[in-house]
Specification:
Layout (H helix, E strand, L loop, with lengths): L3 E3 H8 L3 H9 L6 E2 L5 E4 H10 L14 E5 L3 H14 L4 E5 L2 H10 L4 E5 L7 H10 L7 E6 L4 H10 L3 E4 L4 H11 L8 E2 L5 E2 L21
Parallel strand pairs: 4-5, 4-6, 6-7, 7-8
Antiparallel strand pairs: 1-3, 2-3, 9-10
């Protein structure tokens, strides 16, 4: 949404005639400026203030975007636990879940989230391939990817970071650490250095092989 709107854009947003918008401006109910060519322009902030004063509904296009987080794990108990923890801390976030890589891909393609929390070991399409696909598309490469695994090893961590993940966390997860990683991932440039599970800056780079499995020994059970 542009910071300023024409009278016709305001009219379309509110479902009213352009003449009504012009009248509001003429009556000093709605603030507006003018371009050098004499065309009226309304700041989004002024339109929001007008709508609040008039007790009128605010169009969804003018509302701030609700941060969206997608949790991907083939175990429903894990996704539900993470969703419960995140919603308790950040009820303003839209938290979704997917239980396989294909379902995650469909959600990402239809409505890209801000952050994906992604398990590495899943049947079919594993976390390495999901991350690679996210990074390969212009529409989705801005998404922050935070990997998680119950089979953590330096090799697995290095590979997923090379695939484009921002961090790789070992299960069982620490809810506060995960929340911090998600908040750090939101709004950050994907080219910035990624954080390891130890919280250090990782500057490794290279190509990943998403088809090679994570062969590290089993760690403690999922939360």
């Amino acid at each position: 949404m542009n910071k300023t709107l024409s009278t016709s854009q305001v009219a379309r947003l509110l479902g009213v005639a352009v003449g009504s918008v012009a009248n509001w401006i003429d009556q000093d109910q709605l603030k507006a400026g003018k371009t050098p060519g004499g065309h009226r322009r309304v700041r989004v902030e002024d339109l929001l203030e007008f709508l609040r004063q008039q007790n009128l509904p605010i169009p969804a296009e003018l509302l701030p975007k609700q941060p969206r987080v997608l949790i991907v794990d083939d175990e429903a108990a894990v996704t539900r636990w993470i969703m419960t923890e995140l919603r308790a801390e950040r009820p303003d976030w839209d938290v979704l879940e997917a239980h396989d890589g294909f379902a995650a891909g469909q959600i990402v393609a239809a409505s890209p989230p801000d952050v994906v929390v992604l398990d590495l070991r899943m049947p079919g399409l594993d976390g390495f391939e999901v991350c690679r696909r996210i990074r390969s598309q212009a529409k989705t490469r801005h998404i922050g990817v935070i990997a998680m695994t119950a089979y953590h090893s330096p090799e697995a961590e290095q590979k997923i970071l090379q695939c484009g993940a921002r961090a790789c966390l070992a299960k069982p997860l620490d809810a506060a650490a995960l929340l911090g990683q998600i908040q750090a991932a939101m709004g950050r440039d994907v080219s910035a250095p990624a954080a390891t599970s130890q919280g250090k800056v990782n500057r490794r780079a290279g190509n990943c092989d998403p088809k090679s499995p994570d062969q590290s020994p089993p760690a403690i059970a999922h939360p």
